[in-house]
## 1
Amino acid sequence: MIKVSVIIPCLDIKKSINGCLNSINNQKFIFLKARIEVICIIDGHSEDLKFLEKWEKENKNNLNFELKICFLKKNRGAGYSRYTGFKICTGEFIAFLDDDDVWEETKIEKQLTWHLNNPEKIISSHLYCNGNDFVNQRMKGYGYITFNQLLIGGVRIATPTIMIRKSLWPYNPEKLRYCEDWLMVSMIAKKEKIKIIPEVLALRSRDVLPLKEDKLSLSNHKIRLRLGKVKAIFILFKREKISLIALILLVFWQFILFIKGIIKSFKGKLNIKNA
């Protein structure tokens, strides 16, 4: 039977982890069978560890997956947590999920079916909804995402949408605190185009705050994210995945996007003030 390892970085999980894990437990398999291994990496908070151990005890008789809990003594970020989970996972396929996201019940079967029909491919993805659907509307017309499209932007390979065939993957999850998922996906995209299944199979959990109100969400750390993207671009250059000219152009493009973001934010605050 095929085994899928699901790696979940966990931070401040009291409101979110029940919905997250239940969405894995509720996965339906009609045309194939699969075993699921869930690895939760507690990112430095002992209260999260106690909460998850209590959750496991209360739900152990109803679980359709094997749960492994790993505790990091210091907060290291989602990238390092995923790297830690990758080192101990035992599945033939790896999927990633964040504790504030959930999966549709056919997610694993649909994505796994594609991989079984395309045994030479490393990675697949699908659409993701965090309350803003404009990126999905654009991506529905894409069968695949290329390395150059990732560099330029305007597309999204959200972490909870990724599935990887472990035996074909020559890399590891990146350990960076910011934009580690973008760098991880870009390294694969340099080798092959990324398949996009045109369905929303992952979405932000209803149990957590809307994205704009969630101060813990990395998506709201705009400056750090932009600096993380620049750092990731430099790493691609050091690894000889992009040229010096591409490096300069991409860093300049990130600067332009940063300025546009500041202007947009300023206009938004001004409109609120004048309302």
Note: The chain is about 40% helix and 20% strand.
## 2
Amino acid sequence: MKGRRLKVFQAHLGFHDTIVAAPSQKAALQAWGAGAAEFAKGFAQVTTDPAAVGSALAHPGKVLKRPFGSKGEYKLESDPVPKRKLTPRQRKIATDAAKLEKRETAARRKAEREVKQAQQEEIREMAALKRREAELEKEKLAAREKARKRIERAKARLAGPSRR
């Protein structure tokens, strides 16, 4: 950038007011990483503000920032964007919303625990029922065997040779 006269360009990009010392609009747009329409739309322009010009010329080709709407000086790393001040009513609404969300989260967690417990209980009950089914199947087989033997004895007596 040596040899060419530098101009200082100013633009509002995102949450920041930015400036850059560059020889042309094209160079300024490249430094910002912005599209060519920034100047056409009025988002960027040449500035003659002495504080901005002095800061930009101290760091030619580098984008300097400050939070949008502030009157502070431009820096390579901008100050953090100040948080919006809330009215007491807005604070109460935000607090109430946070409390409601916390309650809903707690209720959701409780419901998830209940679902998990119910599923585990179902698994235990199904296992117990399978054990009982196996026991009943054994009893059923034993009862059939006992009945079969009784029937065989009764048939043997019926068909037997002894009639007195």
Note: The two ends are 136 Å apart (CA to CA).
## 3
Amino acid sequence: MNQTQNRLPIFLVGSLFFIFVCCISIIALALAAQTFVFRPDRAQTALQTPAPRRALPTVQPAPTPVPLPTIPPALIDNDIETEIYRRVYQRVNPSVVAIRIIDESVLPEDTQDVRPFFFNTGEGSGFVLDTEGHIATNRHVILDASSIVVRFYDGILAPAEVVGEDRDTDLAVIKVDPTGLDLRPVTFGNIDELHVGDRILVIGNPFGNTNSLTTGVVSALGRDVALPDTQFRLPEVIQTDAAINPGNSGGPMLNARGEVVGV
């Protein structure tokens, strides 16, 4: 009897512990089932949540165009270099002529309505020396010419003849009848006043294009050039970077005052 009474408390305590363990297990299972069991309300929430959108690239605004620099009108109006070129050309161009060498063998018998320039076999430039009709040019322009025609700035054509030539300087003088012609002689400058870097202007008829102006500077002084039909060399030649092409031969080289300083 005593043994039975002694075991009863132990039995009760064990039963209570077992019941406590079972309760803990049930609670744990319930929590686990709640985690893994599908819930429609949560699924609906997930469907309604929009998927994250990828950020669009940022569009950079177009750069503001940089305004082009403008040339102040006062600077243009006071452009000394341009003014020099304009005035020299206006002053000297009427003194410059185009020279054409005519081959009479290709002229038709009736030459009354024929413009000689259509039959030229050589060309060059020249400039008026005086009001008597003398014109300076290079000797090689009129060398062995049988017939020479001069065209003035205003389009008038006049026949010319050779009145003098110098082989050693490659210079020549031709003459036209001054009657009815607007002859404007050039002014000569002093070559001893030239310096490297001075402005140079050339007016002539390159490639048959009459009344053309090119500009540059004096690149060097005192050069010498060999001539094809003489044993001498041409001294005191002015070197320039101004464009000089076939047809410019015999035209004037001018300083900034419009004076002739070379041929």
Note: Residues 2-36 form the longest helix (35 residues).
## 4
Amino acid sequence: MSWCFRVASSPSSGAGHMVRSLALAKSMLAVDTSSKPCFLLDDDGTDWIDAVEAAGFTHVAGTSPAGEWTGAVLDGYAFTSYEIESLRKTIGGGPLVCIEEAGDAVDHADLIVDYGCHRSGDTAAGKPALLGPTYALLDDRFADVPARPVPPAASSVLVTFGAFDSVNATGLALDALAEIAPDAAAIRVTIAIGGRSPHRDEIERRVGAFPGDVALLVDAGDMAGLLGDADLVVGSGGVSLIERMALGVPSVTVAQNDVQVAGIAGAARENATRFAGKIDDLTPEGLAGELAALIADASARKAMSDAGRKLVDGRGARRVAEHLCGLIARPPVAANAGT
């Protein structure tokens, strides 16, 4: 079986699409060594080549991959109808699987995967679907993590809004923490950003003027390790939220865009995070109030940690992989080059 992963991989797309697709591809290879995942990257997605190759996968460029493909996984929201039709021709009659989190109808999908906490059931928009956090696409580092100790007061706060953070939610979080810092000298703040963040210079200036203990990390490689060292996270929705739920890290979550709102609100209803709101609706003072209350409330953080671990056990990628490998009951269909 040869699976093509067409993934939004440009810097402006952030890291979430690639992170979860890599987790799924690794699990597929573990389930069936003949699955042979190949990644179709954006023209400016070359930053991901090392990660793809390190996982043992191949990669190609362009919107019309030639070859023999059993099925395809589509992860992104800006693909053209031409690209989708090209994938259809490439996989012949094989399944086209769409990873979705916006709750939109996906007419071109044969199977929808949406692991949002607000989702359940086995159909979406009339299509077969794998729905809910039991299908969260995370790698093995996040599987079956033991319960973590919860200190009386949170002293280590991590700010992480993804590799790109075009709306500079990181800056908002820094301003909010600066409101708290004079009265909470024991708090250590870690800021994690991507090297291509369009607001990197501004964030560096704010870090330099921060009235407390703060460290800036650029392109941190071990996000699981950073999350494991944090008592509290201020962060985004999407994959980042699912990761901290699996690790039992309490958090205040800010929606960077409309796509993230439903997933964050669903997690908040399950008490797995606090939903601060959409970034356009927030002020540093308002976010500071949310953070200060949670920093001081150990019982709330413990309940949040337990709720997150209960919802996300880190084995969702394996479940999805087993389902996808089980879909294939015929040999791959040859496609003409350039179609």
Note: The first strand starts at residue 3 and ends at 7.
